[in-house]
Amino acid sequence: MYPKGNKIYRDLQELYWWPELKREVTDFLSKRLTCQQIKAEHQLPLRLLQPIKIPLWKWERKLAKLYVAKIVRLHGVPVSIISDRDPHFTSWSWKKLHEALGTRLDFSTAFHPQTNGQSERVIQILEDMLRSCVIDFRGSWEDFLPLAEFTYNNSYQSSIQMAPYEALYGRRCRTPYWTELSEQRVLVPELISDTEDKVKLIWDRLKAASDKQKSYADLKRKKIEFSVGDLVFLKVSP
């Protein structure tokens, strides 16, 4: 499984160096058949989607138990959650669960996936990784899901300029590469101080990345102001 070329280059650069490292990484990925097969399509899909309505009553309680066991137990109760308007997330029981936990639910606007664009992008990357694993190693994608998650969490992210694991825990994750290299040992006071500095740094980098993304998006938009009483068309689902 391979992340994007820049991410692989960043990870290799931390441990190794040789002349034209970045070019060789790019050439290697460009020649891999698997990388070409999993490359995401950015074209309008053909034919209209025919969704299958999902029954909710049987899954609502299971979803709540899974959320408490996998998220709340390990990371605590979130302040807010941004999600699309999937029936699972707009159901009465899901809303009541988060009302009891004190979590605010923010739903993306209909026909505007950019609201939750960060999650959509992560999902696309994980899908590419899983597709690559199935092509190369065969088997069910579920078998490779933990490896895909581990790879993504330890890959360099340009928005925060470090890996998600390092941002969350304040230190680099131990990987198989470390068996060949000496591990860095950090004392507890140094770890706390370093973590506080990284939290501040991550906030600054996320703000800069957000501002940069907004400036690019605004180039293809125009500013419109509405006054009280203006009549407008509202785009709704059919």
UniProtKB/TrEMBL annotation:
Residues 1-172 form the Integrase catalytic domain. InterPro entries: Integrase_cat-core (IPR001584), RNaseH-like_sf (IPR012337), RNaseH_sf (IPR036397). It comes from the Eukaryota. GO terms for molecular function: nucleic acid binding. One of its GO terms (biological process) is DNA integration. This is Integrase catalytic domain-containing protein. It comes from Gossypium darwinii (Darwin's cotton). The lineage of its organism: Eukaryota, Viridiplantae, Streptophyta, Embryophyta, Tracheophyta.
